[in-house]
């Protein structure tokens, strides 16, 4: 967790992208740990003149390219691309289990880019908004996976408890049934002895018959209870099949999001290549313009040149 003095330290979005051990300031912890996963904008801003630095030993995220000192927004965007790739790989590798620290980085970087969008050039603002949308889709995907997994785990736990309870109840019913059968055999033996004894103690025989009838009624009730337990077990199995279908749908949606992320990465590569071509063309035109200016200056000197007047020696 952040320290108590985190309110006095400036928030560094660069650290949130490159350092897995980084955690957002304390006033954002409640939102980050919340499972709502809505859009989060940091309440802190970084000074415009601050230039995030990366030490020599820190690992560069995927998509990182070194740029000039004044390209802080472009640096954050390129490293945000690497963060998108890192989250996508972790979702694929762990079937939805994403490190909470990595989620905090995605949300913090997304909030910082949202605040900086007003400073971007018109030519790059569309690209920035596309990556902000990717961050939002990733956060929604992580939230959906976690909620579905928690729901599945909760239902699986409930079903396990219910199955254990059903098994215990069925075992108890079988024990009671066996005991009642033994008692029935004993009662029938006693009844036979009474009959052979010439009808002595008919009251005792009547009581035994009544007890036997009660045992038979209890046995019927136990059979009905066992049928009800088997019906509930079937319903739980149907619920489990439905949850498995939901999980398959979430997996399909994850594949679609991966395809969209790859499309945005290709667009970013084409955009950077076009920028390089325009810079080279601009440099060539600047050189040509300097040559033309030099030629114009030479022509102006030639035009402004005035030859010396000749003196006519024949005139008095």
Can I get a quick summary?
With 316 residues, the chain is mainly α.
Outline the structure in words.
The protein is mainly α. It folds into two domains: 4-143; 149-299. Helices cover 73% and strands 0% of the residues. The protein is built from six helices and no strands. It has helices spanning 13-18, 26-33, 72-94, 100-116, 122-196, 202-304. α3 packs antiparallel against α4 (100-116) and α4 (100-116) runs antiparallel to α5 (122-196). It starts with 12 loop residues before the first helix and ends in a 12-residue tail after the last helix. Residues 1-70 and 118-123 have low confidence and may be disordered.
Key structural traits:
2 domains, 6 helices, rod-shaped, disordered N terminus, 0% strand, single chain, mainly alpha, 316 residues
Layout: helices, strands, pairs:
Blueprint: H1 13-18, H2 26-33, H3 72-94, H4 100-116, H5 122-196, H6 202-304
Main sheet attributes: strand count, strand direction, barrel closure:
none
Radius of gyration: 41 Å
Question: Could you give the count of β-strands?
Answer: 0
Structural class estimated from helices and strands: mainly alpha
Q: In percent terms, what proportion of residues is strand? A: under 5%
Tell me the overall shape.
Answer: rod-shaped
**First-to-last CA distance:** 108 Å
Spans where pLDDT lies below 50 across 5 or more residues: 1-70, 118-123
Total domain count: 2
Order of helices and strands: HHHHHH
Tally of contiguous helical segments = 6
Query: Roughly what is the average pLDDT, rounded to an integer?
Result: 68
User: In which range does the helix fraction lie?
Assistant: over 70%
């Amino acid at each position: 967790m952040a320290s108590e003095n985190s309110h006095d330290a400036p928030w560094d979005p660069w650290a949130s992208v490159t350092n897995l051990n980084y955690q957002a300031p304390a006033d954002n912890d409640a939102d980050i740990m919340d499972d709502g996963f809505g859009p989060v904008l940091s309440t802190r801003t970084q000074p415009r003149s601050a230039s995030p630095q990366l030490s020599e030993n820190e690992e560069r995220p995927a998509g990182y390219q070194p740029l000039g000192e004044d390209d802080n927004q472009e640096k954050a965007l390129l490293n945000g691309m690497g963060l998108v790739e890192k989250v996508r790989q972790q979702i694929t590798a762990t079937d939805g289990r994403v490190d909470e620290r990595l989620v905090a980085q995605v949300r913090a970087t997304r909030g910082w880019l949202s605040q900086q969008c007003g400073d971007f050039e018109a030519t790059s603002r569309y690209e920035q908004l596309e990556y902000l949308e990717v961050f939002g889709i990733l956060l929604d995907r992580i939230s959906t996976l976690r909620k579905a997994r928690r729901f599945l785990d909760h239902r699986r736990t409930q079903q396990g408890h219910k199955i254990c309870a059903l098994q215990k109840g069925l075992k108890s019913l079988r024990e009671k049934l066996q005991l009642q059968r033994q008692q029935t055999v004993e009662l029938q033996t006693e009844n036979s002895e009474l009959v052979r004894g010439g009808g002595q103690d008919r009251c005792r025989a009547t009581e035994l018959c009544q007890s036997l009838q009660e045992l038979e009624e209890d046995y019927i009730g136990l059979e009905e209870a066992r049928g009800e337990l088997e019906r509930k077990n079937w319903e739980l199995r149907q619920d489990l099949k439905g949850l498995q279908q939901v999980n398959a749908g979430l997996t399909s949606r994850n594949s679609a999001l991966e395809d969209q992320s790859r499309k945005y990465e290709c667009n970013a590569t084409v955009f950077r290549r076009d920028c390089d071509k325009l810079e080279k063309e601009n440099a060539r035109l600047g050189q040509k313009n300097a040559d033309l200016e030099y030629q114009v200056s030479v022509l102006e000197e030639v035009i402004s040149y005035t030859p010396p007047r000749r003196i006519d020696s024949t005139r008095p």
